[in-house]
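STRUCTURE:
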């Protein structure tokens, strides 16, 4: 399923909870951030909603946050009860002074942070694999990365990726190169044709970009 961003998707309670935890103390790289005014307000909301939709109240699932960067979302997920959360990025994906120790202390969390290139080999399996605002930063390596990630998904898992929609990214090609089936029906997405014409209700930001998300919606379509 491929969908466009909509303001109604923003979970204000979720974003406010992250902001409240994030702004405790005097850690300057985080202090004063307003996620609800930034791109990931919608992205984190839709990811969280899809996890809840797929797994309900289950908290014993294994979650992988791909391209975590400086995001506190993985630590937040562990903070609210998800038992196994792994955050992965390249060496240059981490921002200075934001690391495992800080987030785990801030959120009273036990998240694993791994610095590695997913395309160079990664043999763990996860129930949920997601990325938020990552694919648009690796347009030349997106195909390879998504193919590797899809091989790490457990049967009946959730594969969801949310990205800005800049020119130059062929989302159809990205989706078709995953090792799991994902429906791609732009003709059924209101107001767009191959993502060239955004719908009027799309949520635009000051850079005139909107978001697109894709995930494997139907459980019975996934390959075992």
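SEQUENCE:
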């Amino acid at each position: 399923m491929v969908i466009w961003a909509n303001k109604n998707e923003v979970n204000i309670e979720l974003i406010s909870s992250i902001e409240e935890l994030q702004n405790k103390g005097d850690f300057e790289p985080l202090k004063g951030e307003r996620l609800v005014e930034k791109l990931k307000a919608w992205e984190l909301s839709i990811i969280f909603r899809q996890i809840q939709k797929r797994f309900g109240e289950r908290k014993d699932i294994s979650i992988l946050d791909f391209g975590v960067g400086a995001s506190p979302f993985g630590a937040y997920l562990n903070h609210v009860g998800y038992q196994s959360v792994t955050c992965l990025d390249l060496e240059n994906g981490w921002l200075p002074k934001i690391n495992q120790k800080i987030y785990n202390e801030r959120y009273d969390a036990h998240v694993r942070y791994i610095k590695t290139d997913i395309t160079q080999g990664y043999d763990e399996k996860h129930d949920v694999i997601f990325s938020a605002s990552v694919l648009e930063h690796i347009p030349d390596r997106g195909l390879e990365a998504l193919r590797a990630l899809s091989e790490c998904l457990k049967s009946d898992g959730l594969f969801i990726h949310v990205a800005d929609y800049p020119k130059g990214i062929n989302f159809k090609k990205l989706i078709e190169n995953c090792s799991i089936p994902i429906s791609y029906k732009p003709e059924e997405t209101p107001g767009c044709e191959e993502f060239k014409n955004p719908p009027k209700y799309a949520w635009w930001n000051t850079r005139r970009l909107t978001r697109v998300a894709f995930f494997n919606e139907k459980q019975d379509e996934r390959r075992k």
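REMARK: The chain has six helices and seven strands.
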